[in-house]
Amino acid sequence: MEKSHDLPQVLLLKPPLDMELFGQDRFSSDKFRFLKAWESPLPLDQFLQAHAQSVQAILVSGGIPVTAETIRLLPALKMLMTTGAGLNHIDMAECRRRGIAVANAGSVPSEDVADLAVGLLIDVLRKVTASDRYVRRGLWITNGDFTLGSKVGGKRVGIVGLGNIGSLVAKRLEAFGCCISYNSRKQKPSVSYPFYSNVRELAANSDVLIICCGLTDQTHHMINKEVLSALGKEGVIVNIGRGAIIDEQELVRCLVHGEIKGAGLDVFEKEPDVPKELFKLDNVVLSPHCANLTGETFNDRQKYVVANLEAFFSNKPLLSTVVDD
Amino acid sequence: MEKSHDLPQVLLLKPPLDMELFGQDRFSSDKFRFLKAWESPLPLDQFLQAHAQSVQAILVSGGIPVTAETIRLLPALKMLMTTGAGLNHIDMAECRRRGIAVANAGSVPSEDVADLAVGLLIDVLRKVTASDRYVRRGLWITNGDFTLGSKVGGKRVGIVGLGNIGSLVAKRLEAFGCCISYNSRKQKPSVSYPFYSNVRELAANSDVLIICCGLTDQTHHMINKEVLSALGKEGVIVNIGRGAIIDEQELVRCLVHGEIKGAGLDVFEKEPDVPKELFKLDNVVLSPHCANLTGETFNDRQKYVVANLEAFFSNKPLLSTVVDD
């Protein structure tokens, strides 16, 4: 075994969420060691310049931006690993230009994310969170039965982005008797669900929209006033993608004025800031971006991250890289 | 068409929940009319004696008891219709002795009940209601990420009572990658899930118990200290059956002391009274007995109730009667 200081270094700009929660030991390896930018007294740019020739790999998590400026300060960088699914914190154009391999947690957290999407949908339709508040406030005794919910089965569910996560959401909701259709960049030849090339048309033909796509320049504010209006007064929206895929200000307006029926939101435009107007509403469920936060998936993900970095330093193929088409 | 006062009468002891919510018109028929005990100034026993020879059918909903005393005052009674699924408010022994046909809403509300069971399970495992409270209290900003949830997939789910509802719960949870086994009065030859004749053994081999059976003398407090202890510290319980199937005092003690991990409860022993100790807990979801309360199912149920009563008065076979074995 090489001595620890001979090992190649994986740059950490800030502590990734997984390490903050579980400590660094679970990420240790005899193939690499971590270089922690935040432990240095140097300003970040000087720190990066000092290690410019040695840093071949970076590890980050969702909230940690990797800008073009950072990448330009690291001429030896060849691999960027992010522990989440989203890529919107990474300057993908610069990575492509430089030929840097970008890897995310792949499909490891997809089941968890799909589970929460279904949980949020059942919750909004069947008013689980709202009725729990009702019971805890003692209102069941004083005010009698809670208001009726809406049935899950038979709902026309439009899935926006039928990748890993979207497909798992569809599989689950089929078991509830929902009717699935979808929108995505291209029609999927292997899928029999009806395809809508236009998200407004999907919304017009759906009782529920579930946002499962990534955030890109193309999907930013894709769910706008027009789409929400097509979804309509009886429509429900669930977002487990990224907050900025929806025009949040418009969504809040629609929810407050009853122009759509309800929403289950795990993501927001300015996390951890959540629009205060939503706090008073019974027809929304607010989840603090935790669609992939289960103990089981953290375990799997930690193993996957280490295995991917070890593959990189052993010149083996990565377990997965991001296809950014 | 016969004149209204010539029509046979359906006795209502109290307004059934469905009528309270939607009015009586939706239950009207040209085959029968309603006889409303609560509108008479007479005490109930005298009122029943006055109509003893004419009442052939009664319509009730879940919270309205039909005792042996009531049944004995109605010698002409031949049919009893209840709008819910449960039968614990009806003296079934007396009905059997007298050969009175008992009909419930059959499988009409089963999907709704199964949907809520799954919703409560996802909620407890993924902490949906607890994290919604966290966001609404502004704690995401001040305290950072919420605690990790537990993955739905891979959980060993023990279903107690594999009838209509239990089977629909199993079908849904298979789509999430759960491993199903069950306990019921008898093993079902058509079912391939592992069967446990003993509910304590089922609990010992499960991460989750979902109570889907009816309340009878045999199932009263069936989920006792021994069963909860077999389920264990990491175990979760969901109850969409009836409150008294679980020894509620023991359940509360286990939840307060962390002897089981969490619970999703739609039913309680003394509804609408919910043990106050539960109000402070983040590991429980409290639902005000609304597993079958959706607008869609109320519609279907109302049609089903009217059709069943019309079948009775037309001497046609009932759409369903309760098999009480």
Automatic annotation (TrEMBL), chains A, B:
It holds the Pfam family 2-Hacid_dh_C. GO terms for cellular component: cytosol. Residues 37-322 form the D-isomer specific 2-hydroxyacid dehydrogenase catalytic domain. One of its GO terms (biological process) is oxidative photosynthetic carbon pathway. Keywords: Glycolate pathway, NAD, NADP, Oxidoreductase, Photorespiration. Residues 118-291 form the D-isomer specific 2-hydroxyacid dehydrogenase NAD-binding domain. Belongs to the D-isomer specific 2-hydroxyacid dehydrogenase family. GyaR subfamily. PANTHER family: 2-HYDROXYACID DEHYDROGENASE-RELATED, D-ISOMER SPECIFIC 2-HYDROXYACID DEHYDROGENASE FAMILY PROTEIN-RELATED. This is Uncharacterized protein. It comes from Acer saccharum. The lineage of its organism: Eukaryota, Viridiplantae, Streptophyta, Embryophyta, Tracheophyta.
